[in-house]
Design brief:
Three copies of one chain form a homotrimer. The first copy, chain A, is α/β, with parallel strands linked by helices. Chain A has four helices and 22 strands. The longest helix of chain A has 13 residues.
Chain lengths: ~220, ~220, ~220
């Protein structure tokens, strides 16, 4: 493995989504450098586009586990939850990726959990708390006073207005919009709910419910 | 008050929206520096996140009115209209905030009125006239040959196509889309109209009318 | 014509759309410099906003054809197709415009055809192939493993998810969303189809079909 001032990152995932994340990590000044790709089935070789090492689970355990940080790329919340559980049991350490220039100021009160990722051009407002292994893709707009749980995926171009709570394992589709709540009555997207692409949620959504349309209605 | 080469700005508003504006003003090279927050009910103290002075109306009149510039942060058009009227009567001067690199070139023919604000990543095309105390939030896309009136609010992620006229006091919700008009027949959003989040306006909207859906229809 | 280290570009088109393109080309470090505007009916004079030469077809043939590169600005696919054919017959050479920092890395596998244009803040993922004389406007988000044909126009704010194929002459309206396909079954937008503003395509669209709504349905 490279000897580098940046902390080494292993990307879990071998699809286009992992390459998107690779692009962003390498482009930003985030302090990490991607050194390998893997998934649970991979065998030792080379990732076909970057020519970086593609490693097996055994190679990861032997050569990378103690000296690198992992970021989980798959878009599906339940997959990330399952993989995170397996790698936690193996003692993995997780990286986070986000634009620190936009989120780190103490007055901004932004808190981002372990293993989470905010993509290119994604903006968050003040008082935003994001859980673990949560993935916000590109061009997402998150307002102020928003709580986002663990294993949430938000697809590109989505808009989350202010005074919103998104519970664990929620999937927000591309270009979906959540209207703003109020301090007394935030809009709550319940655990495991799913907003399909382009849906507009104008009120709270019960757990495990899939909604579609403008305005969003349960399927 | 600070002695600074930048012009001092007082932000009217004490919610998350005001902190969003604070973030952008401080991050940009706009020539202003926020020195205090206030609203009509505030008492002297400190804004809780930035620790900047929170000032009362009396303190503003005595110590800030003659030497600072105000920007009104509340999102509701009628609130900004009411507050602007009161502060005009008190002799307030207003700041504007926008990315001059994107708007100032003379050939671009962009005109932005007093007290108006264009948020982060918001783009405007050529021949765009924006009135006073109008607020375009983040990630908004405004085409060419567009007129926007006074006290208009456009929420994040909205798209205004070319050959559109938006009259005073209009509220455009998050992610709403206004289709393009033509030079002979622009799309006109009438005074005080409201497009709810995610609405797509494909034709002109009468004044005071609220529309919803794709395509947008009156409620 | 200017003697310049940058390659001279002539913009075909004289409306606000052409000025949008002018703004972006001049702002970026793309290696081109706009030296004139024209359309098939223009007479020699000056473009009204930039004061750059507005040239006739005869002047183009005599003074610009051999030493400049053209970019076609009209938004309508069929107009660009017609004009490209006429100028190809006259031996024109075409420019491309896009942000090379975001697309050029070899591992990114992005291929952009002749005469095509990607606007400001438009992002593309890995394994994206774009044809000739195709126009992606501002703030567009294109995922990974996407093929876009020739003479396609994508209006601002649209979102194209991964595993999508967009055939020639398609028009994607402002803020429209195409859901993701899968490697085995990509979503295909057929030749000449049209997605109106804000439409969400959740399945393939037949050629020459216009769809509207959330989810998109044929008109």
């Amino acid at each position: 493995m490279k000897d580098t001032a940046k902390r080494p990152m292993v990307l879990y995932g071998t699809s286009g989504q992992a390459l998107f994340v690779y692009d962003e990590v390498m482009r930003s000044g985030s302090g990490y450098e991607v050194v390998a790709f893997m998934d649970l089935d991979s065998e030792d070789g080379f990732e076909q586009y970057t020519q970086l090492p593609l490693i097996s689970l055994e190679t990861w355990k032997r050569d990378y586990a103690d000296s690198s940080y992992m970021l989980l790329c798959p878009g599906t919340p339940s997959i990330r939850r399952k993989v995170a559980k397996e790698f936690c049991a193996l003692g993995a350490r997780f990286a986070r990726h986000f634009d620190g220039d936009r989120t780190d100021a103490p007055w901004k009160a932004v808190d981002i959990g372990e293993g989470s990722y905010l993509g290119l051009n994604t903006l968050v407002g003040n008082c935003v708390k994001i859980g673990d292994h949560t993935q916000l893709m590109t061009n997402i707009n998150v307002g102020h006073d928003v709580t986002i749980g663990d294993y949430v995926t938000i697809a590109p171009g989505a808009i989350v207005s202010g005074y919103v709570e998104i519970e664990d394992d929620v999937f927000i589709g591309a270009g979906a919009i959540i209207s703003n709540g109020t301090p007394e009555k935030p809009i709550v997207i319940g655990q495991g709910a799913m907003l399909t692409a382009g849906t507009v949620a104008i009120r709270s959504v019960p757990p495990q419910t899939r909604i579609i349309g403008v305005p969003g209605r349960p399927l």
